[in-house]
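Write out the 3D structure for:
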Amino acid sequence: MRARRSGRRHQRGAISIAAVAGIFLMAVVAMGAISIGRITATRSDCQSAADAAALAAAQMIRDHGLPFRAASRAAAESLAQRNSVLPVQFQWNLTQTAAEVNVSVRTAITLNLPTLVFSGGSTTVNANASARIAQTRFDDAERRLPKLVMALDYSGSMTLPFSGGGSRAIDVLENSISSLLATNLMIDYGAAFYSSNVFRTVAVSPGAPNQIVNIMNAYDAGGSTNTAAALNSARALVSAGENTGRYLLLVSDGAPCCSSNSFSAARNAAVTAWNRDITIFSLEIRRSGSSAALSQFMTDVAGSPSSRRDPNYHFVATSAADLVAKFRDIVASIVCKVGPMNPAPRDPSLLRVYLTSGGSERAVPPSSDLVADKALERFRYEVSDHTLRLTEGACDAVIDGGDDIVVRFDEPGLTD
């Protein structure tokens, strides 16, 4: 009896050891499974952090320029850190070409794990991501002291005010021209004054601004609107010298006269000007009673030699303030040009411009008035031909100072 009891006690002890071993093994397997799950989740967090960091850095480079300074890195890392409850380490690398900036980042997260599963008690998870931001680089700008001849309508209807009253159209026109000529933009001017016919001209020359002002002071509006004669006279004036950029500005508030073929004659005059490499801007003074035929005609004679009858070169003024603003826009747009951009930005609102010298970039803000801002470094993007128009200050930095122009645009995207 004693022997049997002793055997039973020995058997119960053997079962307990096996059970403990099984439980221990199951615990190790469970910890391993949990650890693998944690590693998988951490790897996902690590990749999300890398993606977020690369995109944030690319956007900061687009919006703030290069170099990628410590403050920008810290901001990108702070944003990316939100993807993980564990600390994330970052390693950065930037490269750029003429067409893009590439931002690469390697992230690392150290995860503490049971020593029964991982001998070192931890493991490090890594991820990589790259993002690109599109850019275009230019090392030169077009500034050739362009020639601009203004064909100014002095017909009798120019004595009328704009819709809603106010000053006479001719008075506002003369005041706006005088103001512009006084800004001393890098443009050679000329003028053709017309009504029933062209009654005075001013040849393109450095002394033209004073002559134009003197003629405006000596004459008042009267007569009809012989647009064909104005275009032909202006074409001859702007074609007389070297082609350093030929521009013609037609200002009118009325339909062409004074024959049965007035419209076709004026359109033919525009074609002849385009054939001589002349760009025509048309500035329509519109009133409440203005006809649709006038607006269509002013569009028909507007455009560049390569883009004829282009509505982007047709401007409309419905008030005195409008007239001044449109006139300034037209004149400022020919002072200094860069481009066209290829590819063109999908969203011009995301376009950022920088002047770069010695590896450092400085932002060039957009301008709503290139004439008023002429001494500053400013730009305006022209959707019509995908070019940048620069102020004289910015143009001087490129042509005289040797700075490059960097244009970044559109949203950044991850690369494979």
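The two ends are 79 Å apart (CA to CA).
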